[in-house]
C-alpha cells in the first residue's frame, strides 16, 4: 500500500548507516497506523491486532522471536533495537495512540480540550522525533523539547489539512471546548459547514500549529550534518501546508491542500535562510 507523505522518510540526506533503522521505525509506525485506519475491519479486530503487534514488539525487545504475522516489520525493527538501543517505551507510546484512534472512532468521541489533544500528540508524533534524535546521538533536554514541538506541530498540521476527511471517518480532532467557544456545533462539523465561526475556529488552530512549529524550529541548528538540512525541509514543508490552508480561506472541511513540485523552490529558499 502506498501513502501520500508530506515529508521525506530515510531520504538520501540521511547517513547510509542510519537508513535501515529509520526505515524500520517508519514501517513499524506505518503498519500499526494502517491497522487502526485502513480497510473495513471491526474495531475489536483492530484492537486485537494491535494487541498482538504490541506483544511482538515486547518479544523482539526482549530478544525473543515474534509471531510470524509481520516479518518485514519486526525483523528490521529487532535489528534496529539491538544495534542502536532504541528506547522501546517510545515505540509502545505510538501503539497506545493508534489504539486510542480506534477507540475514539468506535465511540464517535472527540477531544475535550487542547490538553487532551496535546497528550495524544505526545504519543502519536513526539516519539518519532525522539527516536530519530536518539539515532543521531542528540540527547540534550532542550533539543528533545524542541523536537516535541516540531512533531506535535506536524501532527496538528496533518489534522487541519485532513479535517474534512477525518470527520467523514468519525474522527474529531477540533477540541470540544474550542468548538463551543467559537459557536461551532457537532452537527456543523458532521455537515462540513463552512460557516464564519468554523473558519475562525480552524484559523485559530492553524495559528496554534504555526506557533508550535516555530517554537521548535531552532532544533535545525542542533542536529548534525545533512540531517539538519533534512529537518529544515520538514519544518518548511509543514509551514508551507499552513500557508496553503490560509490561502484557501481555511476551507479544509471541503478541500485538502497538499505539497506539489511548485512548492519545492519555496521550501528550499526558506530552508537556506533559517
Would you write up a description of this structure?
The chain has 274 residues and is mainly alpha-helical. It folds into 2 domains: 15-107, no CATH class; 109-274, Farnesyl Diphosphate Synthase (Orthogonal Bundle), CATH 1.10.600. 67% of the residues lie in helices and 0% in strands. It is built from 13 helices and no strands. Helix 5 packs across helix 7.
CATH second-level architecture of the largest domain: Orthogonal Bundle
Please tell me how large the radius of gyration is: 19 Å
Count of β-strands: 0
* Helix and strand run: HHHHHHHHHHHHH
Shape: globular
The proportion of strand residues reads under 5%
**CATH class division of the largest domain:** Mainly Alpha
Tell me the CATH superfamily of the largest domain: Farnesyl Diphosphate Synthase
First-to-last CA distance: 35 Å
Total count of domains: 2
Structural class: mainly alpha
* Number of helical elements: 13
Q: Largest sheet at a glance?
A: none
Mean pLDDT metric: 92
CATH level-3 fold name of the largest domain: Farnesyl Diphosphate Synthase
User: Helical content, roughly?
Assistant: 55-70%
Taking pLDDT < 50 over at least 5 consecutive residues as the criterion, the unreliable ranges are 1-10
